[in-house]
Design a protein that fits this description.
This protein is mainly alpha-helical. 44% of the residues lie in helices and 8% in strands. Helix 7 crosses helix 10 and helix 10 packs across helix 11. The longest helix has 24 residues.
Amino acid sequence: MGSSVLSHVMSVSIASPRFLTSMSSGRLQRSYLKKWGRMHHYRLPGGYVDTSRCYCSVSVSQSDISEKASTSVKKRVVSGVQPTGSLHLGNYLGAIKNWILLQNTYETFFFIVDLHAVNGGCYIGGARNLRNITVKITLEYDVKQLATATKSTAAIYMACGVDTTKASVFVQSHVRAHAELMWLLSSVTPIGRLNRMIQFKEKSRKAGDEQVGVALLTYPVLMASDILLYQSDLVPVGEDQKQHLELTRELAERVNYMYGRKWKKMGGRSSAIFKVPESLIPPAGARVMSLTDGLSKMSKSDPSDQSRINLLDPKDVIANKIKRCKTDSFPGLEFGNPDRPECNNLLSIYQLVSGRTKEVGSGIHITTFFFS
């Protein structure tokens, strides 16, 4: 494992930027930057490399750093959402709503995963549908549209309650160590492991090898880089995303085993280069299903806008979508019946949005809540 990436990992572990974005420019305070630079010079074959350079703007005061040092260390949570399509109710209930609670308990890193948007990949935290991907990986993307969508996603984060004084919010591509670490992790990732990933298997089977880009095969390695770079303790994931986190855990353990002793001899605190992250799965709302198919996850990539409730949909549009959503011919409403996936989905959405329990909400008609 190259020393440059090891130094990136250490640097990110020490520095916890409160807000990172190219929407504004800036630098770390000179005193902190000088101190950081003295701590992180590593000898490479070509000479010394100064890892104190910062490729994104941050707003970190010296008092913030001192305050953090004096408090007990919090566990770190990392999550992100693509800036493609419209953020919908599934994104909010499955990811962003939980972020609001997490930021008060953990050290949180929430970012806009624009690199995954470019290659058509999908991401952690409720923004992915593994079965209904309609984005062709080889399609060109509109640079201006992606930039606008990135800013819009950041704005929605904050409108939903993400507090930049508590959580670090940044754009993935602005921290180039993500791509650098991905490249190095790919050298220790077995190709057979990637071939067994669900999305690649299904997409390549449907489209054929000649129509599928390499990015679809390797994007789970970029995801692992996103998580491991920040020494994450916990990662909020949906039930259908456990496979990707398992790959991340395997890569962390593999790197620790192969290079841990060398890392410790170089001055590392322990023989573990990366923390092995755990999954953080909400008890409810981890999977919000489509309004047109109770067996498919609500997705931004679904061609039918009727299949989802967008966060920016007007009130009358939301009410109309609930009225027109797919149901069944059975009388009444009930949880947990495998023959009634659409019914279960509507009740789950109602439960999460209203805050009611199954018992308290059992006597209320679901449309009453959405139309009131």
